[in-house]
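Incident log, support desk, overnight shift.

02:14 A customer reports that sequence design results differ from what the structure should imply. Their input is reproduced verbatim below. On-call engineer (initials T.W.) acknowledged and began investigating.
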């Protein structure tokens, strides 16, 4: 146990052992015989570790081991009549000044034979997280109890880790999946298929916390790449007639699919309240704010059967859609479930170039 804990410190120097016996080539164990008859057993995973061992020295390792042995001797001398002994061994600290701690408690229940009846090992990863292992000997039977941290202890560790790695400004990514709907005159002039009128947005977020690490108030911005699909329920096509966009129903073709699609890039600015639960997980979220955007492209697409073959017509055009757009959006959620809604305050088409229509998008926000 002492050698294990000493080697756990990871302290090495620069010279190697003077004598040893190597086992068969397929073994991964080396036995080093000392002059006084003592043996040291090394366990190696591969030949590279064996070659690297020549660069190490036992000097620093022995100093760590001697300190541990001296500490045990001091405790035994100071408590000669005691059957209980506890030793705490601190591993070498890392660059950030933090280290792990291992505590070993040995209890001798039979002072006549000196037989150890119970051992207790405490491994403390940090000030909030520890694992207890208790080994109890009863004749030929050995009972091992492992006491893992409770859920509350794990949650407190999660909260402490979150606070330790806190950053006021964080970057993230989320996806909006939802549906589109028309308001205004277009809502009465054309019917949309709800399942086909999809809204998809890929969003890169920059979220800044305002008011300290425990403040729920955040400012959220970033870039949104949005794709709006408007799939018509009837045999409707979109046409530019005399520089005016119209929705025209045709009777000579039965469309399997007819839709108008446009993509845009948006810049949101949202104020959000984000609360954490006691266990450190995400709690209630509420946010709202404006956005502005610019249309990147647009096209129509029809799919239908003609002469026993599937035909696909795709036309790229502006269709008098507004180039600039603006509106408001919001998000509400709890835990991992978040809902979003967006309302385009500008008309879908340019003034006097099409039906008056505004777009509403709503659905689920993933990975927020």
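02:41 Re-run completed on a clean worker. Output:
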């Amino acid at each position: 146990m002492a050698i294990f804990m000493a080697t756990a410190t990871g302290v090495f120097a620069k010279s190697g052992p003077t004598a040893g016996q190597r086992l068969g080539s397929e073994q991964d164990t080396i036995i080093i015989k000392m002059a006084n008859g003592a043996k040291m057993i090394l366990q190696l995973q591969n030949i590279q570790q064996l070659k690297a061992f020549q660069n190490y020295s036992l000097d620093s390792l022995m100093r760590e081991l001697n300190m541990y042995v001296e500490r045990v001797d001091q405790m035994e001398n100071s408590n000669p009549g005691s059957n209980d002994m506890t030793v705490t061994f601190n591993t070498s600290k890392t660059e950030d000044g933090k280290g792990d701690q291992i505590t070993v408690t040995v209890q001798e229940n039979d002072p006549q034979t000196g037989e150890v009846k119970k051992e207790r090992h405490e491994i403390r990863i940090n000030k909030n997280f520890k694992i207890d292992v208790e080994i109890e000997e009863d004749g030929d039977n050995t009972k091992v109890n492992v006491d893992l941290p409770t859920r509350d202890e794990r949650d407190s560790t999660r909260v402490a880790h979150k606070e330790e790695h806190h950053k006021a400004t964080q970057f993230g990514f989320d996806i909006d999946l939802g549906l589109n709907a028309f308001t205004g005159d277009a809502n009465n002039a054309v019917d949309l298929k709800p399942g086909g009128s999809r809204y998809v947005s890929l969003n890169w977020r920059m979220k800044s916390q305002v008011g300290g690490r425990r403040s729920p108030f955040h400012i959220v911005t970033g870039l949104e790449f949005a794709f709006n699909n408007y799939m018509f329920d009837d045999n409707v096509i979109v046409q530019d007639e005399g520089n005016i966009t119209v929705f025209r129903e045709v009777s000579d073709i039965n469309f399997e699919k007819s839709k108008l699609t446009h993509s845009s890039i948006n810049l949101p600015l949202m104020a959000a309240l984000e609360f954490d639960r006691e266990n450190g997980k995400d709690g209630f979220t509420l946010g709202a704010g404006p956005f502005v955007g610019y249309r990147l492209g647009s096209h129509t697409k029809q799919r239908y059967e003609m002469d026993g073959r599937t035909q696909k017509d795709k036309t790229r055009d502006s269709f008098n859609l507004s180039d600039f757009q603006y509106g408001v959006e919001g998000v509400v959620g709890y835990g991992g479930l978040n809902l979003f809604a967006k309302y385009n305050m500008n008309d879908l088409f340019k003034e006097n170039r099409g039906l008056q229509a505004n777009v509403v998008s709503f659905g689920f926000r993933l990975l927020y």
